[in-house]
Design brief:
With 271 residues, this protein is α/β, with parallel strands linked by helices.
Length: 271
């Protein structure tokens, strides 16, 4: 069997990820308008009517802005923690009866053919989670919106075949950005903010040592980062340890406003 993953959108302006295993297709987050998400799915040959549900990481707008539309228009169930539902409140409008599903960190469940393992993440939201998604012995993890790469996050995603890992910002660009208030800079740089390029690169070393073969750098800031810079920091860190991107690990970038490529992982191989 094969497991598929596509970063439809990944960035501070909106997030939506696609995962498929067997006959089950899921979205992780719906942080773009419903039409934009449907159009992105169409680009990879997937109809919205074939999606089984949406897993929501937390209540910030770049992860939920299209969720209400998808629930109402396509009758898609929405899965989020109790704290996230409380944080969402009325932000996405009314969810039709029966489509609100409450999950919990460390409470695994199946959604069709896919095993879902939510885990707590260090971020300034009510009850945020990342997800490790299982298809048989294969697994894909999403680890963004991390103030720091904690030992618990590593424990929950170590050995994943593919990881979408946050490489949000360059600290120097952020500190010099005149558009950002000091409080916002402090929040982003804090232990419950977002992972910098350097912190991402350090986490990347641990993931590779743990057996991960494909890492996609995601959730890049549009104001305080560039795809080239994010890649360069990670590649430089890997090179110091003798790790060769393209040979020892597949290192890719998820762009903020462009539908990414579809990744296929198989047992004993990554693509």
């Amino acid at each position: 069997m094969e497991m598929y993953f596509c970063p439809l959108y990944s960035g501070s302006s909106g997030n939506a990820l696609f995962v498929q295993y067997g006959n089950t297709r899921l979205l992780v987050d719906a942080g773009k308008p419903g039409k934009a998400i449907a159009d992105a799915l169409a680009k990879i040959g997937v109809g919205m009517e074939t999606i089984s549900g949406v897993l929501i990481t937390h209540e910030h707008s770049d992860h939920i802005s299209g969720a209400g539309v998808l629930a109402r228009r396509y009758r898609l169930p929405m899965y989020a923690t109790a704290g996230t539902w409380q944080g969402i409140g009325s932000k996405i409008g009314e969810i039709p009866p029966g489509l609100t599903r409450v999950i919990g960190a460390d409470r695994d469940f199946y959604l069709g053919d896919i095993g879902v393992s939510p885990f707590s993440i260090p971020h300034d939201a009510a009850d945020p989670v990342g997800f490790r998604l299982w298809g048989g012995s294969l697994s894909i993890s999403t680890a963004t919106d991390l103030g720091h790469f904690s030992a618990d996050v590593y424990r929950r995603i170590a050995g994943s075949d593919l990881v979408l890992l946050e490489s949000n910002h360059d600290p120097d660009m952020l500190r010099a950005n005149p558009k950002y208030a000091p409080a916002l800079k402090k929040r982003i740089l804090g232990d419950y903010g977002h992972l910098s390029n350097e912190a991402c690169a350090s986490a990347l070393l641990k993931l590779i040592a743990g057996g991960t073969g494909t890492v996609i750098l995601g959730h890049l800031s549009g104001e305080n980062n560039t795809p080239g810079l994010a890649r360069r920091v990670s590649e430089t860190t890997l090179a110091r340890e003798g790790i060769r991107p393209g040979a020892d690990v597949q290192l890719q970038i998820a762009l903020r406003d462009e539908t990414g490529e579809v990744y296929c992982i198989r047992e004993n191989s990554q693509a």
